[in-house]
Amino acid sequence: MSLPETMKTEDGAHRSAGRDDWLARWLPMLRQACAHGPVLEIGCGDGEDSATLIGAGLALIAFDLSADALAAACHRAPGGRFHCQDVRQPFPLDGKQPGAVVASLSLHYFSWDETRDISARIRQCLPPGGKLLCRLNAIDDHHYGASGHPEIAPNYYLVDGSPKRFFDERAVRELFADGWCLLSLEHGVSHKYPLPKALWEAVLERSV
Question: Of 1, 12, 93, which Cα lies nearest the Cα of 42?
Fold first, then answer.
């Protein structure tokens, strides 16, 4: 899913975004995991990560809810297979089994039950040992909605008319408690957007 709110300052003015090379250190692991299958990217947006994955020689299947973002992604990462759809629909794998899934800031729009269901479906589409690289909004991501908005449920807010979830470490671990081995979990800040964005970065392996 695209993230249009992150492309604006708090006063709504559009600014150009910086680069965010978070995937670079994980590319050797992704190449190994995807030796015999594609990488599935959930919520590819305008294709910045897609271009990194294609540039690393990986076969890519990606999707996003925004047709405009997908048009940009197709231009930015030629060679990928792009689909316009919601993450709650069946993944567009066309009979292929991905070796890894990348989901950067795309799993935070949903109720807790829906979010857990998406996590389970990601695990089910991977082989044992398949990898998930995931980034999630942190509860201290105050520039982008973690405070000052109507609360739907704990750490789940209505931000500019759209639901948006924020995670603490306990919630991240709970989300991936069943059938996953947590290889890495780090709290960090992305400078891709006009203001610093706090997030969690998790790397997981399907264990069963």
Answer: 1
